[in-house]
Structure formats: C-alpha cells, structure tokens
C-alpha cells in the first residue's frame, strides 16, 4: 500500500486535464456526467474498473453511486462506513491511496475486488472544502500507479465534485419542494363566515424558500391566520419555515392573544433556531368574524379593503422580527373592525419589493390593484402584477373576505341644499336608466329619493348628503343623511310631507310600499334613510 504525498507536472497530465475539462461535459445531466467521466478515466488511465461513492454525512457512510467495469458485482446504494476498508480509509484520511497488490488487503468488498482487480488507486472527492465522496479505479493486472496517475484522477474527482454538488442541490430542491407542498396546500379548507384564496411564488431557481401562509380553525371557533417569511432560500429556509409553522400552530392552541403566541415563537427561534430571522403576521378572527386581532413581528402591514372599495394599510403596531436581539416580551396586538364584504390581504415583501425601486412604489401598486372582490380573483390580479418581471424574492399571498353583502359601487356621493335637489334628482334618474331599471320602477325610485331629500331640507337643518350605490344583490341603493335631531322610524313615516292622492297621511308609507326595502337609522346627530330600489 502506498500513500501519495507529492507529485510533479508533465505533458501527460496536461493532456489529461484537457480531456476531463472538456466544456461539453458542462452540458450533461448529473448521471450522464458521472458516466462520461468514468468512460474517460478508462481511456486515460487504461484501467478495468472505476467506482464513485458519495458521502452521506449524517450516517458517515459512503454510498455507491456510479461504476464501470464491475458489471454484476456493482449494486447502487451499497454503503461503506468511513474508516473501514480501502475506500473508507481514503475518506477518513482525505488523501489518495494506492494498493499495488490487493492480495495483501483484507477488504473483501465487491466494490474493491470486483472484476478480478489486482491493483487499486483511489482519491477523495471534495466539494466546497468538505469531503464529498471517493473515486477509485482498478487494474486486473498488477500495476504500479504513478504520481501522474494520481493527479489525473484527482482532476477527474474535481469534475465529479461539480456533479455531486449539483446532485446534492437537486436532492435538496426535491426535498424542499415536497416539504413546501405539504405545508402549502393548493386549496384552502372551507371556513364558515369567510372566503379565502392564497398563492405562493418562488423567487429563485430552487423553487422553494422560507415564505409561508397558514389558516387554521381553533377549538374555540376562532380562526388563525398566518403569513411569514424566514430569511434565506432553499432547503435550509424551508426546513426552518416548517418548524416555525408547526410551533406557531401549537402555541395558538394555548394562547388566546396573537402577541403572546409570537412571544413564545420568538423564544423558540432564539433557543432552537439561533442565527435565523423571520417576520410573521399572526391574526385571530373571532367566530362572529366581525373583527381582526393582529400582531406583527417585523412584517409588512396587511391591506384592508371595505365593501365600498376604500383601501387602507392596517394601522397595526409593528414589533421587531423573530430572532432579533434578545427575545421580545412586549409584543402588541391590535384590534380592528372586519365589516361584511371587507377583504384582508396579507403578503410577504416579495409582493411589493423590486430592485432599484422604492418600496413605496410597490405599496402604491398593491393599493391600486386590490378591491373588495372574490379573493381568488384578487390574488390572480396581484400575481399578474408581480409576474410582469422575474421576482427576486419569494412571495406568499393570502386574501380573506368576510362573507356578507356583495361590494357596492358608489355612483354618487354629493352634499345638497334646497337649490341642489332638482339637479341630483335628474342624476339619480340618469343612473336608474343607465343601469336598466324599468321606467315605472325608475319613476317610483326617483320620486322616493326626491321626497327623502326634500324632507331632509325641511326637517334636517336645510341640507343633507346623498350616496347612490350599485349593489350586485339589490340594484340601486340610495342613502340620504341629514343633521336633524333624529326621529324614530314610525315618526319618519309620518313626517314626510307630500300626501298621496288617496290619503291625508305622509309619503313615508308610500315610499315603503313602492321600494323593495326602507331602512331608517335615527339619533342625536341626524337621520339616515336607506332606500333599496324595487326589483
């Protein structure tokens, strides 16, 4: 047995270098590259066997991956412990090894003795300065391998290390994809009281990263909503993401406040995930679905769109990310209203950040794109905006809309006084015609709105405001507000002045008869009269 300590260059080495660094090899897949390298080793060194074993670092074993010349003696997946036998010693000592006559060896592995081999040469394969495997060749005739043979085989090992690195990356990517698919379902479960949709867009070739979204029902009936972003990309970030997701679900079962759950999660990151950072949004929505309790750990604030398409970034306290400095104990929860038809859009920064662009530009783009529509349609629209250029970061997106009346579009929103009633009456008539109301129904609706505006002038301080809305489920809706002292609904029905031809009573009863719904809210600051057009 000979251990090689040094060597000299030669023309033969240079010719070998040219053969094993052929640019054409860079276009081959991993398995094809390893096979081609072994073919070239056969030609260059005139050997009878060649084997590549890759290191499993967790088991500290070498795994047979590719071979040539062993025929029936080779079985992929055979494992050899580091330190045991010929290849195990090469891996342990991390230097080349020559055996002139295998008869003097006790190693009986078919990976070594297969094919009637008499002489052996093996070298370690390195990747990024770390051991990646072993490459060895054999001759059926007794042979004294030279220093140049060793150096040439080391060059082949260098090329093999590129393939092993690619292979490891492929395994990591496949593993991370499987992990992420298990954690990010393509369809969210149906939950009473809300509609939901989500998207995940990788920003790197690995196709995976540390961004995630999660929605879960708690035993109390509350709904947990999570969007998070672990720093980094690839398998490492995806693994940390999976741990944080599972831990937060556990903390959600024992914490009734989002800030408390994130405090526990922060402690977990500091103790078990040292060196990692993550931003997380955790919100809880009660069984009534009428509010959002939210805590932000360094995460971008979500967008809340009301049923009238008013868009605003949630004014919630933003605390430090998880894993930053000492564990934070003063995290805060903000409570906001979640009215029927409103849409909550939660996202990671990949949705709004672009290279060479201010974050404000991305936030404005988000604000201009969202509306209180179907969550799936809103998510699709946002993905189209993101997809206009290749993203540089992963993106997780989750949209949740509270079930309720469909969004209403504002057609008119005007203040009026006595002089403005006639003009607004004509505009209401125009909108009724434009939206296809039958002539008789339109006349009744316009007359009813006119009477309510007139009443506001006479009894509501001489002025009022009119909002005309278009609702998908109800057609035209008029809302007239005045600054009168306020009347109960029954009193309003009597106080509308204009009489109907067959009665000396007020127009209020006539309005109630001629419209689909009449709703009155009256209080110290004034009166709201909502009229929904008859179908």
Automatic annotation (TrEMBL):
<dbReference type="InterPro" id="IPR001932">
    <property type="entry name" value="PPM-type_phosphatase-like_dom"/>
</dbReference>
<feature type="domain" description="GAF">
    <location>
        <begin position="29"/>
        <end position="175"/>
    </location>
</feature>
<dbReference type="InterPro" id="IPR036890">
    <property type="entry name" value="HATPase_C_sf"/>
</dbReference>
<dbReference type="GO" id="GO:0016791">
    <property type="term" value="F:phosphatase activity"/>
</dbReference>
<dbReference type="InterPro" id="IPR029016">
    <property type="entry name" value="GAF-like_dom_sf"/>
</dbReference>
<keyword id="KW-0378">Hydrolase</keyword>
<protein>
    <submittedName>
        <fullName>Serine phosphatase RsbU, regulator of sigma subunit</fullName>
    </submittedName>
</protein>
<dbReference type="InterPro" id="IPR052016">
    <property type="entry name" value="Bact_Sigma-Reg"/>
</dbReference>
<dbReference type="Pfam" id="PF13185">
    <property type="entry name" value="GAF_2"/>
</dbReference>
<feature type="domain" description="PPM-type phosphatase">
    <location>
        <begin position="191"/>
        <end position="402"/>
    </location>
</feature>
<dbReference type="InterPro" id="IPR003018">
    <property type="entry name" value="GAF"/>
</dbReference>
<dbReference type="InterPro" id="IPR036457">
    <property type="entry name" value="PPM-type-like_dom_sf"/>
</dbReference>
<dbReference type="Pfam" id="PF13581">
    <property type="entry name" value="HATPase_c_2"/>
</dbReference>
<dbReference type="Pfam" id="PF07228">
    <property type="entry name" value="SpoIIE"/>
</dbReference>
<dbReference type="InterPro" id="IPR003594">
    <property type="entry name" value="HATPase_dom"/>
</dbReference>
């Amino acid at each position: 047995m000979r251990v090689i300590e040094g060597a000299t260059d030669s023309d033969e080495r240079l010719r070998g270098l040219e053969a094993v660094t052929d640019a054409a090899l860079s276009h081959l897949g991993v398995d094809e590259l390893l096979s081609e390298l072994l073919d070239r080793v056969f030609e260059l060194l005139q050997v009878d066997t060649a084997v590549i074993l890759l290191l499993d670092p967790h088991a500290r074993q070498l795994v047979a991956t590719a071979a040539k010349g062993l025929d029936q003696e080779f079985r992929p997946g055979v494992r050899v412990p580091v330190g045991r036998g010929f290849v195990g010693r090469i891996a342990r000592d991390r230097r080349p090894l020559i055996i002139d006559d295998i008869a003097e060896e006790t190693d009986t592995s078919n990976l070594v003795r297969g094919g009637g081999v008499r002489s052996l040469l093996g070298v370690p394969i390195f990747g990024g300065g770390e051991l990646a495997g072993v490459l060895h060749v054999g001759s059926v005739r007794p042979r004294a391998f030279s220093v140049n043979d060793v150096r040439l085989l080391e060059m082949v090992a260098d090329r093999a290390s590129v393939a092993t690195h690619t292979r490891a990356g492929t395994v990591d990517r496949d593993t991370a994809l499987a992990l992420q698919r298990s954690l990010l379902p393509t369809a969210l479960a149906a939950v009473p009281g809300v509609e939901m949709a989500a998207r995940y867009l990788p920003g790197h070739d690995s196709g995976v990263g540390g961004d995630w979204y999660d929605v879960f029902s708690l035993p109390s009936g509350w709904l947990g909503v999570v969007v998070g972003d672990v720093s980094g990309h690839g398998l490492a970030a995806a693994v940390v993401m999976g741990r944080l997701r599972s831990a937060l679900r556990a903390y959600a079962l024992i914490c009734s406040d989002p800030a408390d759950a994130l405090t526990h999660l922060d402690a977990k990151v500091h103790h078990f995930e040292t060196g990692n950072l993550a931003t997380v949004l955790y919100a809880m929505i009660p069984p009534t679905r009428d509010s959002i309790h939210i805590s932000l750990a360094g995460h971008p604030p979500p967008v809340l769109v009301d049923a009238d398409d008013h868009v605003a970034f949630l004014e919630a306290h933003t605390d430090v990310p998880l894993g930053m400095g000492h564990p934070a104990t003063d995290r805060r929860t903000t409570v906001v209203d979640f009215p029927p038809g409103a849409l909550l859009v939660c996202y990671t920064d990949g949705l709004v950040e672009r290279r060479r662009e201010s974050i404000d530009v991305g936030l404005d783009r988000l604000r201009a794109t969202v509306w209180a529509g179907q969550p799936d349609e809103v998510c699709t629209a946002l993905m189209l905006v993101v997809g206009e250029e290749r993203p540089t970061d992963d993106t997780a997106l989750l949209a949740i809309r509270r079930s309720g009346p469909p969004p209403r579009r504002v057609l008119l929103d005007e203040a009026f006084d006595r002089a403005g009633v006639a003009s607004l009456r004509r505009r209401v008539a125009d909108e009724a015609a434009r939206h296809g109301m039958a002539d008789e129904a339109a006349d009744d609706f316009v007359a009813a709105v006119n009477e309510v505006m007139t009443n506001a002038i006479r009894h509501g301080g001489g002025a009022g405001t009119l909002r005309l809305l278009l609702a998908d489920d109800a057609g035209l809706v008029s809302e007239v507000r005045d600054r009168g002292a306020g009347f109960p609904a029954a009193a309003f029905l009597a106080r509308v002045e204009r009489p109907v031809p067959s009665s000396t009573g007020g127009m209020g009863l006539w309005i109630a008869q001629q419209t689909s719904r009449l709703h009155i809210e009256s209080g110290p600051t004034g009166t709201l009269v909502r009229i929904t057009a008859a179908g």
